[in-house]
Amino acid sequence: MYFPYIRGRQFDLLALRDLVEKNLLHDHIVPIIEPVSLSSTLVSTITQFNARKHPLAIIRNPEVGSFSEEFGALDGATGNVSRKQDFAAEMLQPFMLQALIMNNGLPGVLSAVTESGIEKQDLVVVLNDRDMLKPYQSLFAPDAPRFTVIPDEGVFRRNITTNKVLLTDSFQRQERNADYSQKEDEFFSDAHLYYRSEGYVGFADYSIIGDSYNAAGFAPYAVAIHIVYPAIDKSLRVRHFVSDSNQDINNPAQKFYQALKKMVEWYENERVVPLTLGLKILLDHYQAQTYPGLGSLKKLTIMHHLELMGKLLDGGLFV
User: Fold this and answer.
1) Are 114 and 73 in contact (CB under 8 A)?
2) For residues 43 and 58, what is the distance between their CA atoms, to the nearest angstrom?
């Protein structure tokens, strides 16, 4: 099983919603969403997953964004009373998984979750702080969670032996988009090749976004397109396509088209990656010379990656 860990920004959520709505998200892909706000897009995404009867894990104690404050506010304080009610109702549906980050505030959140009728054995727990190992063992012995997501470190492997999911940050994030041109092609992941043999029941990553989170957006000097593709050795690699006119923030549409032209030439010449919906829409933008915006660009590259992972899980990616 594959668990993409997605921070719940608008276009990240739209990528998930579009895939599940079009039945392009593999049954063995269970996204873990760490919501950053109680947005209408979050609620509509959860609603669509429920409508499609597709499992989805929502972290109830996120460590980024304003979700906890918004959801915990008194009714009416945020103006989102109906949205809060809709979220709570959707979370009670059978295909929703309650997920928790193992931190110092977890016991109180865990009590509230279990009081609502959720058993510990049904939870998804993200455990990435070694100082939380003993509290985890105290809280969840002998009732191991349904899945425990852990980093690729020996101390976690030795202590977590049941229903563990391997979490890696596969994307080598650069501070500036222009810096991706220094290494246009690089290794992305091979966790799918060995996770079972090392005792994991699944593997997880942060897709092509990476673990780092920045609440403030910015206008980039360069536009970069990141495309994951299968390698001959059955690992996954990522190719970066970077714009050329990177001296200032002007004309992002032109920058997008410069990067997109490189991607199209690579795709047509190399033919190493199957055509996914996200990739097809990018090719369509090239043909029509249209600019969808940088948020939609991120959405489309996430969609491509996750649909590609579905092909991998089906066994049809490396043939």
Assistant:
1) no
2) 11
Strand partners, 187: 237
CA distance 233 to 227: 18
Sheet (strand 236-242) strand order: 185-189, 236-242, 224-230
Could you give the 3-state DSSP secondary structure of residue 146?
coil
Q: Tokens 């997501």 correspond to what residue? A: 149
**Residue 170 neighbours by CB under 8 Å, 6+ apart:** 188, 189, 191, 205, 206, 236
Q: How far is CA 56 from CA 10, 27, 29, 47, in A?
A: 17, 11, 9, 10
CA dist., res. 41 & res. 13, Å (int)? 7
- Judge residue 158's burial from the number of C-beta atoms within 10 Å of its C-beta, 0-12 exposed, 13-18 middle, 19 or more buried: exposed
pLDDT digits (tens, 9 = 90+) for 2-61: 999 999 899 999 999 999 999 999 999 999 999 999 999 999 999 999 999 999 999 999
Provide the b/e sequence for 195-232 (b: ≥16 CB within 10 Å). Answer: beeeebbbbbbbbbbbeeeeeeeeebbbbbbbbbbbee
CA gap 239, 233 in Å, rounded: 16
Residue 210's contacts (CB-CB under 8 Å, 6 or more residues apart) are: 169, 171, 172, 173
Quote the pTM value.
0.95
Which residue type sits at 157? R
